[in-house]
Amino acid sequence: MSRVTQIRTLIALIGGLFSILAFAKPVELDEISRKEVAERIAPIGSVCKEGEECAANVGATVSTTSGPRSGEQIFNQFCTACHTSGLLGAPKKDDKAAWETKLSAAGDFSKLLGNAIGGIGSMPPKGTCMDCSDEEMSNAIEFMSGLKP
Ligand code: HEC
């Protein structure tokens, strides 16, 4: 072996040793980078419920209840399909005489409301507004009939 070859071999060996060391050394994080990693993998938003102590930077809590929908809203979304044209014999919106007849047949407003909630004749239960509360049904009836609860 010539001297040059010997030196090359030595260099290659040392290089190899270094790379083995570099790969074998476990990755160690110091305190600062541990904190950084923890911050980066933390969830983006945390849920803050009403009444709970929350992080100081939470501005407003989202209210889950938005109150009853108006009679107009319910009517336009669910009742208009039948009660605007009188489909299937439904009493029409603002047809006072038709509503008076329905009211006296039912007895009083609460019975009328009960019929609308349970369904009557060709009128499906809750007029297809399955998530309507009794109050919202009442609002819708008041809106289309002019009758007062
Ligand atoms: C699929 C058609 C249809 C839809 C949608 C509908 N109705 Fe009716 N509704 C009728 C028909 C038909 C009648 C008449 C039923 C009868 O007297 O036989 C009626 C009757 C009523 C009555 C009178 C009940 C009584 O005691 O005579 C009320 C109150 C009423 N509807 C409320 C509503 C409300 C509120 C909605 C919307 C949330 C609604 N309806 C949606 C068809 C419908």
UniProtKB/TrEMBL annotation:
Q: Which domain of life is it from?
A: Bacteria
The cross-references to PROSITE patterns, in alphabetical order and at most eight, read: CYTC
Q: Which UniProt keywords apply?
A: Electron transport, Heme, Iron, Metal-binding, Transport
| Keyword Transport annotated | yes
**Coiled coil where?**
none
Q: Which residues form the Cytochrome c domain?
A: 66-148
Which molecular function GO terms apply here? electron transfer activity; heme binding; iron ion binding
Q: Which PANTHER family match?
A: CYTOCHROME C5, PTHR40942
The name this protein carries in UniProt is: Cytochrome C
